[in-house]
Amino acid sequence: MSTEEDTKWLQWVTHQFETIAGEDREIDLQEFKAALNVKESFFAERFFTLFDSDGSGTITLQELLEALTLLIHGNPMDKLKFLFQVYDVDGSGSIDVDELRTVLQSCMRESAISLPDEKLDQLTLALFESADKDCNGAITFDELRDELQRFPGVMENLTISAAHWLTPPAAQPRRRRPRLLTSAYWHNHRSHLLCLTAYTVLHVLLFALAASAHRARGPSAMVAKGCGQCLNFDCSFITVLMLRRCLTWLRATWLAQVLPLDRNIQFHQLMGYVVVVLSLVHTVAHVVNFALQAQSEDSPFRFWELLLTTRPGIGWVYGSASPTGVALLLLLVLMFACSSSCIRRSGHFEVFYWTHLSYFPMWILLILHGPNFWKWLLVPGILFFLEKIIGLAISHMGAFCIVEVNLLPSKVTHLLIERPPLFHYRPGDYLYLNVPSIARYEWHPFTISSAPEQKDTIWLHVRSEGQWTNRLYESFKMLCPMDCGSGQLSKSLKRRRSQRRPQSLPSQPMHSGTSAQGAVAFSRDVTVELTSYRPKGTPQQGDQGVVSEMSSENHLLCNIKCYISGPYGTPTRRIFASEHAVLIGAGIGITPFASILQSIMYRHQKRKHICPSCQHSWMDSIQDEDMKLRKVDFIWINRDQRSFEWFVSLLTKLEMDQAEMTQEDPFLELHMYMTSALGKNDMKAIGLQMALDLLAKKEKKDSITGLQTRTQPGRPDWNKVFQKVAAEKKGKVQVFFCGSPALAKVLKGHCEQFSFKFFQENF
């Protein structure tokens, strides 16, 4: 650090010390714990003991500066000595196996990782045996140093990450060019920008033509007529953007490459704002025009008569333009206010839903209000009503049943619905679900998490985040499994205990078989799993399809009536047309990729052949017309350990199929991240992460998820991730994301930097 930076750092630490210490200018253990923001008191107490060099029971400013100087600006050897002192609890100059176990247990709590005691013992022994080179039953400083040197870059960057008050705020980075001015932004958003340009040009033309036709009536009339003509187009076309069946059909055509179909909701919202603005300007212009007419000596009508009555005869249906205009404005303001996110996401979805249905009376009023609106509405209106009629006919053709429910970690409800005979969908599609026992008139969209090749049932995974989804979860949680008939119970148990066929049998999709490898390690004895389903008539032989017993608290067999509408297409339909697809899911945002990965597995099984003589297996290298994929990178980011549980059995099966392939480069690569876990550069986690690496290498599987893929701590370094993807050169890269809008914004920026196509699924 330069002298200026060092001075700023000293000033910052002094200021922070005075804030924490208070009037006595000394930090005690409780104040230290609060400032350090650690979850496990073991580390707080160990750090406090080492910071308190004189053993007085408090930390002075001088002691704090000395310790922080070592941790932040010290050389790797100084940091390593501090780490060794943290691990050497009894101060004997060496670390025995019990001390190491205590440290690893505290590391697990600090990273919110829960493993059985047997697994903790295995981790302790793996690290201890690797570090104790002379096998004398203790780890010396030199042995710990040698062990750490096997992990490049760790010693140089070792610190205490949670101590956010150690370093001053970073200086503001140099202001970059706005994203809108970069060539990458224009390249990746050209279809959106072209549509916006066309939309703007159309409005200018409509306004200009209508205004010029009424220029003899003065400026206010010109503005009113110009806005009115634009409103004719907007109020009719705004419904086209929400015709889900039409949009799904368009996704299968070449127009999907030209039109930004994935942005239909955003364009719908944009047009809503435009309608509100144009309506206000249109109204003000007419009010001004009426005021001028009322002041004219030739006018037989007063201002309020022009504005509120039919007496002046303004309009083509009994002079109803003025009163219908007032009614339209009131309806529009009501609809606009109730469409705000604070209404929709605060448990008042019904308010949004019912006020949005006022589009029908608005259309009637618009037909009465404007003489030409019916011409604009003719084609969009026919399409709209046809879609509504078809949708209602299909959704109410017959009620379907939720036949099984699994209550999964993080309040996720796994629904299994009997599949309608003519319900054809593609991976990543979604449907609308109505459960009358929860809410009679509410329909909510959910991504289908089962593969299309699964013939008997449809899977939905519903995260409890809103009023309706919470009611759904709680209603199933309160149901008693004893209510189900014994006949259905025995039938379901037989289906759940289905076993894997021998490899010599014809290939059939196994969508999520749970095995011992696929269980997420957890301290409790209850394993949450996904049921393995097969098409009817599939032979059930072999001994590999192990199914763990479910707790009755988590698993329900039921027969609950529901209605479904769909399916509807999403951006993820483009995945199979990609060459190199990067699938990124955050938490429950993994749902659309569940269906996609299952379908990928099924298609690969179709390509697999087995020699009947030597049992040698190989894969067809010929790609089918619907799947051009050459490489898939699958990235799943979860906050905590339990969030991995509901999907890990499918990933285990994918890894098993991947291992059977003879390709040099893996077709599917898994990348798992757990954000609550601290990284290897943190003193509170380095021991645990080293032990997890060693045990994963020894057992060929990850201790957290049971997968062969090692779960990485923290968040991905997106710059490194995309650099690696670009270096593989497997073809044009397309990134598909489902998760939080904040992360989507970050990923979109990185994709622009690397010229990757970015697609986001809204949920």
UniProtKB/TrEMBL annotation:
Cellular component annotations (GO), alphabetically ordered: NADPH oxidase complex
TM regions (residue ranges): 270-294, 314-339, 351-369, 389-409, 581-602
Any one GO molecular function term: superoxide-generating NADPH oxidase activity
Keyword Transmembrane helix: yes
GO biological process: defense response; endothelial cell proliferation; superoxide anion generation
Catalytic activity field: NADPH + 2 O2 = 2 superoxide + NADP(+) + H(+)
Keywords: Calcium, FAD, Flavoprotein, Membrane, Metal-binding, NADP, Oxidoreductase, Transmembrane, Transmembrane helix
Intracellular or extracellular location(s): Membrane
Ranges where the EF-hand domain occurs: 39-74, 75-110, 119-154
InterPro entries per UniProt: Cyt_b245_heavy_chain, EF-hand-dom_pair, EF_Hand_1_Ca_BS, EF_hand_dom, FAD-bd_8, FAD-bd_FR_type, Fe3_Rdtase_TM_dom, Fe_red_NAD-bd_6
Main localization, broad class: membrane
Annotated region described as Disordered, given as residue ranges: 488-518
Membrane topology recorded in Swiss-Prot or TrEMBL: Multi-pass membrane protein
PROSITE patterns: EF_HAND_1, EF_HAND_2, FAD_FR
Positions of the FAD-binding FR-type domain: 395-509
Protein name: NADPH oxidase 5
Upper classification of the organism: Eukaryota, Metazoa, Chordata, Craniata, Vertebrata
